[in-house]
Amino acid sequence: QVQLQESGPGLVKPSQTLSLTCTVSGGSITTNFYYWSWIRQSPGKELEWIGMITYSGGTVYSPSLKRRSSISRETAKNQFTLQLTAVTPEDTAVYYCARVDTPNGRGFDSWGQGTQVTVSS
């Protein structure tokens, strides 16, 4: 069973870059046709999809965050990373990493527990 775990700083100052890492165990991020996503939920708001990296390393981003987002991976460590630049207090949220089970059509089938990120000076 695949497991995901987010890690990164809980507090980031405005205008800085937020960096989060998702460590995956129980399955490889290079396994064909699985996608690996970042999703967030701000207080009082719905889940917001940020972007994803595919099994082959391709990336897709939400149009609203594309300008500030970058997702990369380190296959040797079975990790993928989110960088969000020029953060503001509006980027305060719980950030999740998740797997998209495309081969079996099950959508977001595995999630990390989430990590709280607060943007504040």
Written account of the structure:
Strands 2, 4, 5, 6, 9, 10 and 11 form a 7-stranded mixed sheet that branches. The protein has a 4-stranded antiparallel sheet with strand order 1-3-8-7, with no helix packed on it. Strand 9 and strand 10 (107-111) form a beta hairpin. It has strands spanning 3-7, 11-12, 18-25, 34-41, 47-54, 59-61, 69-74, 79-84, 93-101, 107-111, 115-119. The chain has 121 residues and is an all-beta fold. The model has no long low-confidence stretch (mean pLDDT 96). The chain is built from no helices and 11 strands.
Note the main attributes of this structure.
single chain; 121 residues; 7-stranded mixed sheet; 4-stranded antiparallel sheet; 0% helix; globular
With helices defined by DSSP (H or I, 4 residues minimum), what is the helix count? 0
* Largest sheet data: 7 strands, mixed
Task: Summarize the helix and strand pattern as letters.
Answer: EEEEEEEEEEE
Return residue spans where pLDDT drops below 50 for at least 5 consecutive residues.
Answer: none
| Gross geometry | globular
Secondary structure: number of strands = 11
Q: Roughly how many Å apart are the termini? A: 39 Å
Judged by helices, strands and strand pairing, the structural class is mainly beta
Cα gyration radius (Å): 14 Å
